[in-house]
Structure formats: structure tokens, C-alpha cells
Specification:
single chain, Rossmann fold, 7 helices, 18% strand, EC 3.5.99.6, Glucosamine-6-phosphate deaminase, glucosamine-6-phosphate deaminase activity
Length: 240
């Protein structure tokens, strides 16, 4: 693992955005694996600013997102598809037809998972995958106990994960109980992985990741077995 210490969240976003922008500049038809949530938001803002100010083009890029809630259509404000359009896709020159997010409203979810996995392989695999990490070490929605050989699948969300994501839903709105997520084996096939860790609340899990052995009880620990992983953590996350 390559470890990069960022001074703060803005610096983390600057460093991560620079990696993604460099990847696209070096390979204009790059395949990017993208994530949602609080941590990537600042990264996408910097990518948009770079696109507007320096003209980095995403016209040939293809993207695959990690996950999506089951039951939420893409126009739902709490869906990851909506998040991606608002934060990035609608603000750069990336054709929507080249973006891929699992369909949470597919009539056959198992078939949707298979087709998503096949689409990633057909695209030649992911060149650079962005990841966050959950308080319990989950990546994507791969919770502790998820087999390392898992591919794209439907998962039942744990109570802790639902509580962590509750803030993205309106008060009184029913939180989805399931999601589609890339599996751990899917993620590990990426040519390069960038793991983002931000905030004091992530300090304990960063410490566990760096010090505990590889185990399915700590899903992110599998990243230690990847040949090209970069961990970018801000000062708060290093505050052990």
C-alpha cells in the first residue's frame, strides 16, 4: 500500500482529483470506478473546476459506480444515480450513455448483477477505482463477513450502515433495506485502487486497516493483497 498523508479534507480532495485527472489525461478512454457519499463530493467539485478551467475532457471515459439502493429509481433524490448526475455527470462533457450504475429498480436483480459484472469485463476492467471506507471496514456495501470471492450482488444493509446513511434521506422517509454492490473480487480486479479516509471518526478503522491481518471480518483488509493501492488519509483520520 502506498500511503499519502493529506493535511486536511481539501488537500485530500486535491490529491485524489489529481490522480483521476491524470488517469484521464494519460488514457482518454479510461474506465473509472466511482463512489458516492460525503468524502468524494469535494473530489468531484475539483474535477468539475479543472474541466471548466483547463478543459480536461471526459468525452471518451466510461464509468462504473460501486453501488445503488434497491427500490430507488435514478430520478430519486436519494439515489446514487441522482447524486452522480448532480455532483459530476451533468457538469462535465461525459455522455450519460457511458456511465453505468446498477439499476435498483430492475425486475430481475440477480440478472442485473450478472449483467453489471459482464459490462465491467466487456469494458476491459476498471483502470482506477475510488473507494471510501465504512466505520466497520466495509467498502462498497460489502459488510464484514462478505466472502473475498464475491462479485456484484444484492446485499441486506446492516443497521449501522443504514444509520450512517440516514442523513441522506428526508425525515420520515423509509430507508432502503437492500442495495446492489460490486463484490470484493470485482473491486480487486481494478488495475489501481484509491482509498479515501477522512475525519476523526474514521481514525479507528484506519488504525485497524493498517494493523490487523487480512480477514473477511474486515472487508477493506483485502486491499493489502492488491498490487497497486493508494491510501489518502487526512490529518484527522491519522489522529489515533
Amino acid at each position: 500500500m502506498e500511503i499519502i498523508r493529506a493535511t486536511n479534507y481539501d488537500d485530500l480532495c486535491e490529491k485524489a482529483a489529481a490522480l483521476l485527472i491524470s488517469q484521464v489525461q494519460q488514457k482518454p478512454n479510461a474506465v473509472l470506478g466511482l463512489a458516492t457519499g460525503a468524502t468524494p463530493t469535494g473530489i468531484y467539485q475539483k474535477m468539475v473546476a479543472d474541466h471548466q478551467e483547463r478543459g480536461t475532457s471526459y468525452a471518451g471515459v466510461r464509468t462504473f459506480n460501486l453501488d445503488e439502493y434497491v427500490g430507488l429509481p435514478p430520478e430519486h433524490p436519494s439515489s446514487f444515480a441522482y447524486y452522480m448526475r448532480k455532483q459530476l455527470f451533468d457538469r462535465i462533457d461525459l455522455p450519460l450513455a457511458q456511465t453505468h450504475i446498477p439499476s435498483g429498480v430492475a425486475t430481475d436483480l440477480e440478472q442485473e448483477c450478472r449483467q453489471y459484472e459482464e459490462a465491467i469485463l466487456a469494458a476491459g476492467g476498471i483502470d482506477m477505482q475510488i473507494l471510501g471506507i465504512g466505520m466497520n471496514g466495509h467498502i462498497g456495501f460489502n459488510e464484514p463477513g462478505t466472502p473475498f470471492h464475491s462479485v456484484t450482488h444484492v446485499v441486506t444493509l446492516t443497521e449501522s450502515t443504514k444509520q450512517a446513511n440516514r442523513r441522506y434521506f428526508d425525515e420520515g422517509e423509509t430507508m432502503p433495506s437492500h442495495a446492489i454492490t460490486m463484490g470484493l473480487a470485482t473491486i480487486m480486479r481494478s488495475k489501481r485502487i484509491v482509498l479515501l479516509v477522512s475525519g476523526k471518526h474514521k481514525a479507528p478503522i484506519l488504525h485497524r486497516l493498517l494493523n490487523e491481518p487480512v480477514s473477511e471480518d474486515l472487508p477493506a483488509s483485502i486491499l493489502k493483497q492488491h498490487s497497486h493501492v493508494t491510501v489518502i488519509a487526512d490529518a484527522d483520520a491519522w489522529d489515533q
